[in-house]
Design brief:
Blueprint (H helix, E strand, L loop, with lengths): L1 H15 L1 H17 L7 H14 L2 H17 L3 H18 L2
Helix pairs in contact: 1-2, 2-3, 3-4, 4-5
């Protein structure tokens, strides 16, 4: 019962706090990556980047978009990896991140 209540509290916080959501997705992505679940790291890196952007933290967004490009490359999705990384380089240049 207490564990279910704690899980619900976490879900409630993540719904309201973009930075908490970004951090949770970032941690989930790295956890999956380090477990060797490379393909399962893509979605949380994408979600983290969206949350960082929504929260206005463009430096962290840039980091997770770069991580995403790296992971896509590991998966052999080279065109997507290149596009993601090129987009990031351009974004960093424009925003002076």
């Amino acid at each position: 019962m207490a564990l279910q209540a704690a899980r619900q509290d976490v879900r409630d916080i993540l719904e309201r706090d973009l930075l908490a959501t970004a951090r949770m997705n970032h941690a989930t992505a790295y956890q999956r990556l380090f477990r060797g679940e490379t393909a399962r790291a893509v979605a949380p890196f994408e979600a983290a980047a969206r949350s960082w952007e929504a929260a206005g933290d463009y430096r962290s967004r840039a980091g997770d978009r770069t991580n995403l490009g790296f992971v896509l490359g590991l998966l052999g999705r080279y065109d997507e990896a290149e596009a993601t990384l090129r987009e990031q380089v351009q974004e960093i240049g424009r925003a002076h991140v």
